[in-house]
Design brief:
heterodimer; A: 167 residues; Ubiquitin-like (UB roll); 2 domains; five-stranded mixed beta sheet; globular; B: alpha+beta; Aldehyde Oxidoreductase, domain 4; seven-stranded mixed beta sheet; 19 helices; 26 strands; 23% strand
Chain lengths: 167, 774
């Protein structure tokens, strides 16, 4: 049964979705955004809030494989769907090749855009396993980074693409 | 001394694993039991007197725990009407749109927002001081309401000031307008005759708009009163001690009653120095009796959170036919917003001339106030503004003299021992070296592209030199030998730019061990020795010196113990990854773990091993960088694209090349963006017209090219292992390199930033050079 404690039952929504391969069944207030739900209810704070208007990409998560700004989606809209956040990238204790490449190539500095950036890269490589530099830049164009100038992020995605396509 | 095994190696960031797994704790990730949401009411007016505030309806709203106004500021608080820190909550007057008028703490964000709407304020509007013309008028409204318009610096304000102690020929500080708050004048030589000797003289105005630092993480702060007279604060700031001092000063608290934890920081670039919003959270938490978290929205950031200043720089410069520079005259106006900065105009005025040799100069800078958000530092504060002006001007002189712009710079560039504007002598710098390196690049050697290529597009190449004198504060550090032989470096500094990785490399080499044997422990203000703000590119230079000293001290103490234990002389011992050993007999040794045990067990003969680093202010070690940009311009649309960007930078000694390249590429990108896209637009009433990331345009991955970096190492300064400043110099030259490339492409100089498609198109139209391929 969903945990409805503390919630006005008339004004609640039974949300049933998958987050990082784990089924989640929980009653929420229907006005919660997916970002608020992930950060405040599930305490998955790896997803960041940079603008709350869908322009910076720091809150990007994958919904059924598509990168979206979780600040612009209601959690209720994610009902029945499959969510991947940065916390779901590690499999069996192993870093995903995108994570490993961001570390080795210097693709992160402050780290605030990094979660969203890596998920955008993940979605890109799913569709385009061997992207050109232009395709990488296009694929990351919804995610602002202020530290790196994107150079080493592009190199990290190139490196990850090599590993993923050989794997 | 052990060989350098770690310094010079491209180690990945020591904090990378937390960050790429989403586990690093940023300021807005803090969650405490019973924590409330804080929110403030931003002023809707740029200039108004607050007649009355009625908070009763907001207080009555269920779920609201506290509402504060200026009346809640303790009487002990220090208040100076010209301090931006002290204006964290408007008192009788509000002086910019977005200034906090009142604040609430409530159960959740929706309740807090509802409560803010219930706060009723009546204002008497006052004419808005908006433009430079307004600000300079003798009969203008004063922006500061109080007795003094002197530039002030509180104890929370630990920025390095570049002005000479006694500026030559300093004029009357009281300008004709109440809003001229600071004035610097520097004169040298006989200006008139130097101009008379000139074969050409060029005169232009250069404007740079207000821009924002653009860190992706908004300001966030959490305050928790754990005892009636003691507060714990978690905050994303560049200077933990500065932030603590700011709270003490603005709320009249003893420093010891504040524990400040600097969290991970999602970019700062100068904009999160002292954390100007903490006093709101601290006051709210006190009144509510519960922890309060305040996180800014992006709109609040762009409205009121301390952008970088607008400037107007008029330059007149002369040169001889042989390419030697003669005279430079400058009038500099800096719009500081509602409060004086105390250093940005001074930096511009005192360093504008310093990249080149002139016979004579007269430089006058004035800082003025307007009813806009108070400005602060942004990566090399003021230097991109001055660099855009002087490097455009130098380029124009070279163009008119028909001398190669690189050769022209090499002829006139400043050298070690030359007189600086502030009367000091130039220290060893890499200005000539970075230019020489660029001169050797194939990208520069090849002929500049044809302006009119067959594709109907215009191509151009531009060059610029830039420098940053930087900060050099004192710093302290501790080195502790811990269980398992781990070396803990305890510091109070904030890792803004990957500095903890470089600090670990420095400590490891000082002792003679591997980087994985060192851990950098960031301590809060209760436990750390003093650390300067992570600003002015000084962290490796200043804190690195303290870390090295602490590590060497610990090493010396370990060697002393072992020498005593082995009954040998200290110089018979060495240190490696496995411990302290007898050089003549390397398997006779104490492992670090053994040394730890000897200093911590019952009946220990020695105390625990602790090294101390206490580094005084360093000499200055200015960082120089030079850039080449290649652009394409579409004459039909005015759209410009940066195709190639190359930067050479003197870093003294590269501690971590991977981190340095990242700094160079990031700084260059912000600089390109300043040249082409960014501008906070204010209307005549002081309202920001573009307070969102849709309308305030920062570059995405598709907007910028790969950035080629060339690290140059010229010895100088007294930084650890010869390191100089790194983080800020790359921000300086690219703006002018791009502008010069556009001039080369379109044949017209645009002296107002950003160089938008509209400005390019209009310049082409008025020059009668519209697209002839149409």
């Amino acid at each position: 049964m969903p945990n409805t404690k503390g919630i006005n039952k008339v004004n609640s929504y039974n949300l049933n979705l998958t987050v990082n391969n784990k089924a989640v069944l929980v009653a929420i207030e229907p006005h919660l955004t997916l970002l608020e739900f992930l950060r405040d209810r599930l305490r998955l704070t790896g997803t960041k809030e940079g603008c709350s208007t869908g322009h910076c990409g720091a809150c990007s998560v994958l919904v059924d494989g598509e990168p979206i700004s979780s600040c612009l989606m209601l959690a209720a809209e994610a009902d029945g769907r499959n969510i991947l956040t940065v916390e779901g990238l590690v499999k069996n204790g192993e870093l995903h090749p995108i994570q490993a490449a961001f570390v080795s190539e210097g693709g992160l500095q402050c780290g605030f855009c990094t979660s969203g950036m890596m998920l955008a890269a993940y979605a890109l490589l799913e569709k385009t396993p061997r992207p050109t530099e232009a395709e990488i830049r296009e694929g990351l164009a919804g995610n602002l980074c202020r530290c790196t100038g994107y150079h080493k992020i592009v190199e990290a995605v190139q490196q990850a693409a090599k590993v993923v396509s050989h794997g | 001394m052990a060989d350098k095994k770690n310094v010079g190696q491209p180690f990945p960031r020591v904090d990378a694993l937390e960050k790429i797994r989403g586990l690093a704790i940023f300021a807005a990730d803090i969650k405490l039991p019973g924590m409330l949401v804080g929110k403030f009411l931003p002023s809707p007016h740029a200039h108004a007197e607050i007649i009355a505030i009625d908070t009763s309806k907001a207080e009555a709203l269920p779920g609201v725990w506290a509402v504060i106004t200026a009346g809640d500021i303790p009487a002990e608080a220090i208040y100076n009407p010209s301090s931006r820190f002290h204006a964290f909550l408007a008192r009788r007057f509000t002086v910019f749109v977005g200034q906090a008028i009142a604040a609430v703490a409530a159960d959740d964000l929706a309740t807090a927002e509802a409560a803010i709407e219930l706060v009723q304020v009546s204002y008497r509007q006052i004419p808005v001081v908006n433009s430079f013309e307004d600000a300079l008028r003798a009969d203008a409204e004063a922006v500061i309401h109080g007795q003094s318009t002197e530039t002030t610096r509180g104890s929370a304000h630990a920025q390095v000031i570049f002005t000479a102690e006694e500026p030559a020929g300093s004029e009357d500080r009281d300008g004709p307008s109440p809003n001229v708050v600071d004035e610097n004048v520097f004169s040298y030589g006989d200006l008139e005759s130097a101009f008379a000797e000139s074969d050409i003289i060029v005169e232009y105005n250069y404007t740079v708009p207000t821009v924002h630092q653009g860190y992706i993480e908004p300001h966030a702060v959490t305050a928790h009163w754990d005892r009636p007279d003691h507060v714990i604060v978690w905050e994303c700031v560049q200077g933990a001690f500065d932030a603590r001092n700011l709270i003490a000063e603005t709320l009249g608290m003893a420093h010891g009653k504040i524990t400040l934890n600097s969290t991970e920081i999602g970019g700062g670039f100068g904009g999160k120095g002292e954390g100007i919003f903490a006093p709101l959270a601290v006051l709210l938490a006190k009144k509510a009796g519960r922890p309060v978290q305040l996180v800014l929205t992006r709109q609040e950031e762009l409205l009121g959170a301390n952008p970088a200043p607008r400037s107007l720089i008029w330059l007149k410069a002369g040169a001889r036919q042989d390419g030697s520079l003669t005279a430079l005259e400058a009038e500099i106006l800096v719009d500081a917003g509602a409060f004086p900065t105390g250093w940005i105009m001074s930096n511009i005025t005192a360093t504008l001339r310093d990249n080149y040799r002139f016979q004579a100069w007269h430089l006058r800078g004035r800082e003025v106030l307007t009813n806009k958000a108070s400005v602060t530092s942004y990566r090399a504060p003021g230097s991109p503004n001055l660099s855009f002006a002087i490097e455009s001007h130098i380029d124009e002189l070279a163009r008119r003299l028909r001398i190669d712009p690189l050769t022209f710079r090499q002829l006139n560039v400043i050298r070690e021992g030359d007189l600086l504007t502030n009367k000091e002598l130039q220290s060893p710098i890499g200005a000539e070296e970075v230019l020489a390196v660029l001169a050797e690049q194939p990208e520069w050697k090849k002929a500049a592209g044809e302006r009119w290529a067959t594709d109907g597009l215009l191509h151009g190449r531009g060059l610029a030199l830039g420098s940053w004198a930087g900060g050099t504060g004192p710093a302290g550090a501790l080195a502790i030998l811990d269980a398992g032989g781990q070396i803990r470096m305890v510091i109070g500094t904030v890792d803004l730019s990957g500095s903890f990785t470089s600090l670990a490399q420095i400590a490891a080499d000082a002792i003679g061990i591997g980087i994985d044997q060192v851990v950098i422990n960031k301590a809060n203000t209760d436990f750390a020795p003093f650390a300067p703000m992570s600003a002015g590119s000084q962290t490796i230079y200043a804190m690195g010196a303290a870390v090295k000293e602490a590590a060497l001290d610990l090493r010396a103490r370990m060697v002393r113990y072992v020498a005593h234990d082995f009954k040998v002389a200290e110089n018979e011992l060495g240190v490696d990854e496995r411990g302290v050993y007898l050089i003549a007999q390397p398997d006779k040794r104490h492992a670090f773990e053994t040394l730890y045990q000897l200093g911590s067990q019952w009946f220990a003969e020695y105390g625990p091993l602790i090294g101390q680093g206490s580094a005084a202010q360093r000499q200055r070690a200015p960082g120089y960088a030079a850039c080449i940009a290649e652009v394409t311009v579409n004459p039909r649309t005015g759209k410009s694209t940066v195709d190639q960007l190359m930067i050479a930078q003197d870093v003294g000694k590269a501690i971590n090349p991977l981190a340095i390249e990242g700094q160079m590429q990031g700084g260059v990108t912000q600089s390109i963006s300043m040249a082409l896209w960014e501008e906070l637009l204010y209307d005549e009433q002081g309202q920001v017209r573009n307070p969102s990331l849709l309308d305030y345009r920062m570059p995405t991955a598709v907007d910028v090219p790969m950035i080629k970096t060339i690290i140059v190492e010229v010895p100088g300064g007294d930084g650890p292992y010869g390191a100089k400043l790194v983080g800020e110099p790359p921000m300086v030259p690219a703006v002018a390199a791009v502008a010069n490339a556009i001039t080369a492409a379109i044949g017209v100089r645009i002296n107002d930033l950003p160089i938008t498609p509209e400005r390019i198109w209009r310049a082409l139209q008025s020059a009668g050079k519209e697209d002839t391929t149409r």
